[in-house]
Amino acid sequence: MKLTSMLAPYLPILTWGRTYNRGSLTNDLTAAVIVTIMLIPQSLAYAMLAGLPPQMGLYASILPITLYAIFGTSRSLAVGPVAVVSLLTAASISRIAAPGSEDYIFAAIALAFLSGVFLVAMGVFRLGFMANFLSHPVIAGFITASGLIIAASQLKAILGIQAEGHNLVQLAESLWAHRQDINWITALIGSLTTAFLFWVRKGLLPLLLTLGLTEPVAKIMAKTGPVAAIVATTALVWLLDLQNLGVKIVGAVPQGLPPLTMPKFSLDLWSSLLTSAVLISVIGFVESISVAQTLAAKKRQRIDPDQELIGLGAANIGAAFTSGFPVTGGFSRSVVNYDAGAETPAAGAYTAVGLIFASLFLTPLIFFLPKATLAATIIVAVLSLVDFKILGKAWRYSKADFTAVATTMAITLVVGVETGVIAGVLVSILIHLYKSSRPHIATVGQVPNSEHYRNVLRYDVITQPHILTIRVDESLYFANARFLEDHLLARATQQPQLRHVVLMCSAVNDIDMSALDSLEAVNKRLEDMGVSFHLSEVKGPVMDRLTGTEFLEQLTGDIFLSQKRAMDQLTPLT
Amino acid sequence: MKLTSMLAPYLPILTWGRTYNRGSLTNDLTAAVIVTIMLIPQSLAYAMLAGLPPQMGLYASILPITLYAIFGTSRSLAVGPVAVVSLLTAASISRIAAPGSEDYIFAAIALAFLSGVFLVAMGVFRLGFMANFLSHPVIAGFITASGLIIAASQLKAILGIQAEGHNLVQLAESLWAHRQDINWITALIGSLTTAFLFWVRKGLLPLLLTLGLTEPVAKIMAKTGPVAAIVATTALVWLLDLQNLGVKIVGAVPQGLPPLTMPKFSLDLWSSLLTSAVLISVIGFVESISVAQTLAAKKRQRIDPDQELIGLGAANIGAAFTSGFPVTGGFSRSVVNYDAGAETPAAGAYTAVGLIFASLFLTPLIFFLPKATLAATIIVAVLSLVDFKILGKAWRYSKADFTAVATTMAITLVVGVETGVIAGVLVSILIHLYKSSRPHIATVGQVPNSEHYRNVLRYDVITQPHILTIRVDESLYFANARFLEDHLLARATQQPQLRHVVLMCSAVNDIDMSALDSLEAVNKRLEDMGVSFHLSEVKGPVMDRLTGTEFLEQLTGDIFLSQKRAMDQLTPLT
């Protein structure tokens, strides 16, 4: 076996790199140019959202996007700073250091490093399934609430005032307290830019199509709206000297390659960032993989979740060593990359080259860029994530899912992002455990003239006074073992003529030791009542496990392959 | 409806009290006398185990046993201090106050009160199912580890030295550090008493039977061994003035009725006791209900778990108001009560009268009782709880259950009782979630010449290259939704001729919103690949829920009542 084919599963580049040709190159280059143009304002804006210097947004895109190209499995995913992860970064590190301080920057770098190591570890140990505990209702509730918090946090820049807070309540109070300080020129620039960007989202595409552009070109041009807004507002500030009238600008951004950094090794810092690193990793991974899978399916390509973890982990470790902050695969940029025709992860590498060019030569151009413009691009981006319809949808589908959405949303808005996610995960686990702790249990009887046995409450079936057949629609495990025990014993004491109890196990996929003990107890207690206990329709793997247990030795009744056989044998011939 | 019949479900006494007659009275009185004799040393010993004055053990038995007689549903359960709950009490309150101090006593009373309120609340809100999360492996591991810790903690009294600690490591270190201080007379009394009590357990019953006693009488007499040990060692100390040679004695115990106490209302105290109160309540409830159910089943009586919570809650609140500490239904005393012929909970009330007599008149008699004797009764009682066989049994049955037992046991022994239980509960929940997050998924095919569809790996079945049928043996919910999604998509990309994917849902008892979203995603992605997605054998309640969802509207394929119909329709006639 050759070295390359041994490494291939861990280095997807060895697979696609082999068939790389001039056609792919052209497509990837085109996509890279478009994504670069889109990424510049996004990167600056998300750095600002995270409370970091704008250039760190560019730095966080260069090496990460390249490393993902080597280790990731998606051919279209564009990795870099994204809104929700930037918000989580800010929430986490602002507990440790003051925004603007050097410690704050170190903390962001350490967070990217920890998150990268955690992602790689999850990938290597194949722990990607952990991400499953972020249920869809929790993600939906969290994303909507985070979108609102992000939008609210950006209002300060739009209005040119100071405001702080990590939840909607704090932000609203803080904005209200500073309402006298509004800089009206900033507010005008900010609100016009916001309105323009909303219009770009809804109105530009139809306009471009009417103007005769083809749909793919029009779609991509519509995404460059933020660049136009940046150019226009920067020029406006420069021409009218608005910075002297209190309009806050980005100012001097250092030119040059991302400076190499070494993540600080500090157990204290690391332990205070650990929970946040886990949350950021898991949330970032979930966001990234769903984008990657959506795009891959369209080309019948395959995403390997465990390899994706390694790809994203490498990207974050890369961010930590090049003055970046936590990154993940972003939705909008990946879609643009895909639409622009990116064929392989090489497009990402070319984007990195574009961003290097930007950080080397373009930063002086954004000196006069108003912060309000960046805030406007953030607000427009995140408000598209806000979706209250999920509440109604969840309510109609199931009250359990509604509870999970509503809890996550409410706690995120009122308490904060990290508490919100954790509460959501705990609530959904508790709801699941609660549901499976009281499984659906039906008393069944024979559908006349058939071999079918159905719920006595749903069907007109034949039952016998000396036989009770109970079907339980859940695997038997500790959370429902005693419930079943209580139910069976309660039913048995109610039926004085009872001689046989049959537990129909057609929907029982597992029996754990607590459930086995409960079945043993049921068997003994029924025996004390003079009633035999039988099982029917036990599945193969469950039967394998029961074989050789005391329960089976002590069972007063039999195990029947089918419910029909049980009834045939237990019904006396009359 | 009469008031009494309205109240009957909440006051079981109204049910059994109505048919109370002279026969029941005689039986109950006999049982009460025997249980009283047994309870006196037990109560003193468990108070000592909890680090409390011995008379509190008596107090904790009087009103609680009476209140349980009114509110509880078991006819044989004897409520009072028990070993494990006393150990938990000591572990909890010694964090707050120094043993021997007044605050320590107040904390014990507050703990009983909180635990009582919590139990009543669980009963009223029908939250008894919460106890299910203490799985059998966790309970087994915890009881064995606690038994060892209790036995180790009593070694100090047996040896007449000082030793402290809340886990086996601390206790062993402390005993070793004080090894020079052993009082050899105490050690002699202690070890002989222990040996005698072990012999009583194993050897006395056969001896009494050989001597011609009937089995019930012999059984009960064998339980009075501790009383004999107490009488003998007390007499010995008194006769030889051993207290002057360093043998620690119980000393002056106040005579009189249990003093009324008012649980201290202190939010600080309560909040620091809350977790412990919850743990004690749940563990006490689980211990109590399993005893109650075992005994009730023998007489085909019914135990109502929610009413039991109220009964135990009332008992604990009673303990709090009469200078007691947390109580629950004990195993050995309830078995004695049952064996002695108790017919109704009135036996408990008569036992209370016996204990009042004891605390009024008998306490001077135990002035010379050596503490080593009490320690010996505890050691012998708890070592019978220690059962390492559970490790092997769990290992053979399932590695998951073994992990839960071993974790609980190890953490309880090394860290402490509360951490041990909590770790055990968390580990068993995580294991359950992990298992259900990677459900058994089988590719199925048709068993030749039949309507049965089975696992291709277990049976020799017929499959078709353009149809893939997958059966998933688990309810679909957030923890396994993405796993199924990955599996289906991975399988679909492997089979180039594929046109149809059928998901066989015969073992799917529920589909939550995350799983629905995953199915929607699978449907869309398969559509992108040109493959239709079908479901078969969907259960009634699951189908009810799916009706009206977007998923069903967008489904590219059909929903088939049976797998056979699916295959008939999807197989082209050739």
From TrEMBL, chains A, B:
What is this entry's stated membrane topology?
A: Multi-pass membrane protein
What InterPro entries does the database record attribute to this sequence? Answer: SLC26A/SulP_dom, SLC26A/SulP_fam, STAS_dom, STAS_dom_sf
Q: Which SUPFAM superfamilies match?
A: SpoIIaa-like
**GO CC terms on record?**
membrane
Q: Which domain of life is it from?
A: Bacteria
Question: Which residue ranges traverse the bilayer?
Answer: 29-49, 55-71, 78-98, 104-125, 137-162, 182-200, 220-240, 269-297, 309-327, 347-367, 374-392, 404-431
Which residues are in the STAS domain?
457-570
Keywords assigned by UniProt, alphabetized: Membrane, Transmembrane, Transmembrane helix
Q: Name one GO biological process term.
A: transmembrane transport
| Compartment list | Membrane
Q: Where is it chiefly localized?
A: membrane
Family annotation (PANTHER family): SULFATE TRANSPORTER (PTHR11814)
Q: What is this protein called?
A: Sulfate transporter
- What organism is the protein native to? Planktomarina temperata RCA23
